[in-house]
Design brief:
Elements (H helix, E strand, L loop, with lengths): L2 E5 L2 E5 L4 E5 L2 E8 L4 H21 L3 E8 L2 E8 L2 E9 L3 E8 L7 H16 L5
Antiparallel strand pairs: 1-2, 2-3, 4-8, 5-6, 6-7, 7-8
Length: 129
């Protein structure tokens, strides 16, 4: 009978005749707090998608999927021949970003986290009076 064994972020599929490597991605979760309320934060995020698309293009990345489901944006970003899928959920006081990085891109997890937090805070910053 075939079995799965976990070896960190890689799972090995083992059967009597073969070994197969199934690469499991590295999950990255980012939480950004805000004081805008759900509707205003959602509006900022919807308006900011074009800016995000432009910034991705500057670093040779591309938004390949964008699907809104209520207060959730499901997205896919193409980079280095890989596609990263994730979602952004807008809540009353938080925005949650969750992505799963393919193993080849997992080394960029911390840089991604820092960059998303910074850009998210800029996007959600209240205008100064």
């Amino acid at each position: 009978m075939p079995r799965w064994q976990s070896a960190g972020s890689v799972a090995i599929y083992r059967s009597p005749f073969t070994y197969r490597w199934a690469v499991m991605g590295k999950p990255v979760s980012i939480t950004i707090s805000h004081d805008l309320g759900r509707d205003a934060a959602l509006g900022r995020l919807r308006d900011g998608v074009d800016k995000i698309r432009d910034r991705l293009g500057m670093v040779k990345m591309q938004l390949v999927e964008e699907r809104w489901e209520g207060d959730r944006l499901n997205f896919g970003v193409g980079a280095l021949g890989q596609t990263v899928h994730g979602r952004i959920e807008v809540e009353d006081r938080l925005i949650r970003v969750e992505v799963t990085l393919p193993w080849m891109l997992a080394v960029f997890a911390e840089k991604l986290k820092i960059g998303v937090e910074k850009q998210g805070q800029i996007l959600l910053e209240k205008p100064k009076a």
